[in-house]
Structure formats: C-alpha cells, structure tokens
C-alpha cells in the first residue's frame, strides 16, 4: 500500500525562498485533489513544481498558463499506476513536463507576446498527437498582427504514438516561426510528421529530428497538408532508424546518417536537400536486440544488436538511433527522480517497546551524462514533513541502496499510525513520498489476536485502546 490515512493532510510539501513543491493525488485525501488546484496555488511567476501521483483513472484536460515543472509517476510504472491526462495545452514559456501520458498542444499565439519557448517534454508517452500552433488569424484580407514564434523547445526520450503536427492555422498570411525545435531520442510508433500550410512555416532549418526510432509507420513519415509532397525547407533529419517506416516525402529535408530497413524501394531516401551518410540495412541484418516489426510494446528491446549496422554509423562515429547522442533513451523510464523501489515492514502491528524492522531498496534514476547517486532517505511518523526534514535512515550512498535493519521509533500511542519515506539524490531531486500503515499495541495480555494483526489483517481499535479484530 503506497498511501494511507495520515493524521495530517498535506498540500504543500516543501517551500524554499523561491520555489514550492505541491503534490497531487486524486485518489487520496492526503494531498491536493487535482492538478488545477495545485496550479491555482502555485506561483504564476514560475519556479514551482507539481508532482502528480499515478492513478487508475485519468486526470482529464489541463491548460498551463505560466512557468511550472509538472512531474508524473511515468508511462510504465511497474510499481503502481501511471499518471494520465487527456490533453495538456501549454500557453506559457518555461514549462518542463516529465513522466505523464497525454496528448499535447503548444499554442504559441496564446503565450505572452505570441512567443513560446524553453519547453521540455521528456520521458512521457505522447498519445494521439503533439501539435504546435501559430497565430490563429482568420482575417479574409490577410493577417496584420504579429507572427507567432516557437523557440528552444525539446521533445526527447518519449514514446510517441501518433502525429507530430506543425500548424500555421490558415493561408491568410499567419506565420509560425521556429527557432530551435528538437525531437531527439524518441520512439515514434505508427506516427508521422504532418504539416499544414507549409508556406507559412518559417525557420524550418532550425527543426531537428535526430536519434529517433521510427517504427511500424504509415505510408510515409512526412505528410503535407492534403497529403501532398511539400518542402520543409531544410529540416534536419539525422541519425534516425526508419524500421518499417518510410522516410520519404520531405523533398527538401536534409537527411544525414540515417538507417532504413524494411521499407522496400522506399529504403532509398529521396530529397533535393543534403543527402549524406545514409545507409540501407541488409534484409539479413539484425537491427535491435528484440524487435522484428509491428507496433511498440514494453516487452521489446530497442537496444541495438551487437552486430547492428547502426553502431558507429552516425555522425562522428556515434550510434544511429535512440541509444546515440546526448540523451540515450531508457525505454519506459520515469522522470529523473530517485525511486523507492521496495519497502517491506516486518509486521503490520508492533508492541510499543518493539523495534521497527525495515527492508528497503531504492535507486537513483539515470540522468543522462550526469552520474547521480542516492544520498539521503528520511522517514517520519504520522505526518509528511517537508522535503529534507525528518529522521535520516543510515545507509551508504550509491546508485542502488538497500537497508535491512531495525529502526527504533518514538513512543507512539496505541492505535493506527503511518510511516512515510522520501529519498533525495545528489542533484537535489526528491522522490515521491511513500506512506505505509501499521498498528501499535500497548496492553500486556496480547494473546492470539496480536499474531493475527501481525499477519497483515486490517484492524481497528476500541475505546479502551485494546485491539479488536475487525475488517475495515
């Protein structure tokens, strides 16, 4: 059980001079009930973080109108539920989203000054589509307002199952100007890049599509408005693997050091732009450790095979695909937070004088080129303290840590209690809190009932603080 009744309802879990951390859990009364409530409480000038527990049900739609960090429990949380939304719309610069399942819309013209940037979406499952919109001008004679701009936006380490759409809205002169839009180290399954009114998309030479795996694609990865073949003005398409996914129809894209496989005659990349270093794998080549076609699933292994022609074939001898570049992909990996993997209490009921035996394991999640270690785990009884507070659990810092020993707890009254653990890594990132319930018994004649409580049965306590076996 990861969450239980606490004696303190927690909304704000941490506060420093300039930033706050808010926790949301729609399935518990311990935290804020919705992300919207957290946004209503957060600093509109930025700096705050919202952590969202996973849930068996969806968190719905969300509109972000100011700078914030949004972190979920991931797209493949093997220890619990994922964090899911229908659609997240971003109307602000300086937004960082990690560890959620959602479709995304970036509305550049709704941002201050019609300019949106410094956005990172990473380690998410982008389901349905991710769309970038410019100025929604609908004047019949032509647009006279400012152009919309998207700058310094990075979409990386995601699973994308759907469409990447670039919109300038219409043909009435509305422009969408790009100044660095990077898609890198993603798996794109059954998806493609679709663009509308290409003549109104400017700065396309700053769009970079690199180190991705395109798999199980449609007839073409690049589709223009009306499915026509339109130039995207020197978009860089580099060091990607196109496996059963046709790379063509971007007739002026710059194709560098890509690998194609399983596309028949479409394995040959055709472009009027730069066409250099691209290779066609042989039908007898093994590209990945465990993938031979079809839609994505988490049982597949997209590490490149030891004999794969992708190894060393990238720019400067790098590996082509998602395991090359600066942000190698860990498929299904959650947000860059430490993770409390297993927490096991020896019993669910304890005598007041009895030590608390704990078996715990935790790990620091990979942070690309930075080597992070787990530095601290703190615990508290009956309340969740702000991050960095509580009693320190002794262990040797490292990438993976464990603790198997007793911990003495303070004298607690007879009744139901909770213990909460929070971990911190060397980058200062904190884990999601993990809370567990237990009972304390104080009377002398324990008898057979106490053994039943220790076996894990839920119990309640009568008015005399004597243990009475009962299902909650």
Task: Write up what this structure looks like.
The structure is a single chain. The protein has 472 residues and is mainly beta. The protein is 3% helix and 39% strand. It contains 2 helices and 37 strands. The strands form 6 sheets. Strands 1, 2, 3, 5, 7, 9, 11, 13, 16, 17, 20, 22 and 24 form a 13-stranded mixed sheet that branches. Strands 4, 6, 8, 10, 12, 14, 15, 18, 19, 21, 23 and 25 form a 12-stranded parallel sheet that branches. The protein has a 5-stranded mixed sheet with strand order 29-35-34-31-32. β1 and β2 form a beta hairpin. The longest helix is centred in the C-terminal third of the chain and has 8 residues. The chain starts with 11 loop residues before the first strand and ends with a strand. The N terminus and C terminus are likely disordered.
Question: Outline of this structure?
Answer:
The protein is mainly beta and 472 residues long.
**Low-confidence parts:** 1-17, 444-472
**Largest sheet: number of strands, sense, barrel closure:** 13 strands, mixed
Structural class of the helix and strand makeup? mainly beta
Range of strand content? 35-45%
Average the pLDDT over all residues and give the rounded result. Answer: 83
Q: With helices defined by DSSP (H or I, 4 residues minimum), what is the helix count?
A: 2
Q: Could you tell me how far the N terminus lies from the C terminus, measured between alpha carbons in angstroms?
A: 15 Å
How helical, in percent, are the residues?
A: under 10%
User: For the CA atoms, what is the radius of gyration?
Assistant: 26 Å
Q: What does the overall shape look like?
A: globular
